[in-house]
Amino acid sequence: MRVVIDTNVLVISIPGKSKYRPIFDAYLFNKISLVITTSIFFEYVEILQQLSKSGIAKYIEDSLVAASNVITPSIYYYWQLVDIDVDDNKFTDAYIAGDAEYLVTNDTHFADVKRKGFPNINIVSADEFLEIINNL
After folding, report:
1. For residue 114, what are the domain limits?
2. How large a percentage of the chain has pLDDT more than 70?
3. CA separation (Å) from 77 to 41, 81, 95, 133, 136?
4. Cα distance from N-terminal residue to C-terminal residue, the chain
5. Domain count along the chain
6. Which long-range contacts (CB under 8 A, 24 or more apart) does 41-49 make?
7. Where are the alpha helices (DSSP H) in the chain?
8. CATH number of the domain residue 17 falls in
9. What is the mean pLDDT of residues 69-90?
10. pTM passes above 0.85
11. Which of 29, 44, 52, 85 could hold 109 in an S-S bridge, CB 3.0 to 4.6 Å?
């Protein structure tokens, strides 16, 4: 299963005691493949360096670089689907280019994308994706 995970969901899924930890574990144990572009990778690293101890950020950075279940598509077309926060367009573009099944986010900016309806992007919250992961 190919998945694009917004940074806000990645951050809440890393702590060992987080109720969202099964999302990060699904990546660690190859139950899902992460679709990550260069710009998503750099945002992950930047935010993790700000919010966590450097050792944790470095571990996750190294993991993403070396993992066989990380898909790095090339973006040839920029859809510009998110109007409110254009920086979030990198997630929708990765979803389309990476042929992902889910875009997991808790960001309300993606409501615009759902309303547009084209292209069809399966946007789910962390809670919804947690249910999906628990049923694998």
Report:
1. 2-134
2. 100
3. 19, 12, 12, 30, 32
4. 10
5. 1
6. 43/7, 43/90, 44/7, 44/10, 47/7, 47/11, 48/10, 48/11, 48/14
7. 7-13, 21-28, 38-51, 54-66, 89-97, 111-116, 126-134
8. 3.40.50.1010
9. 89
10. yes
11. 85
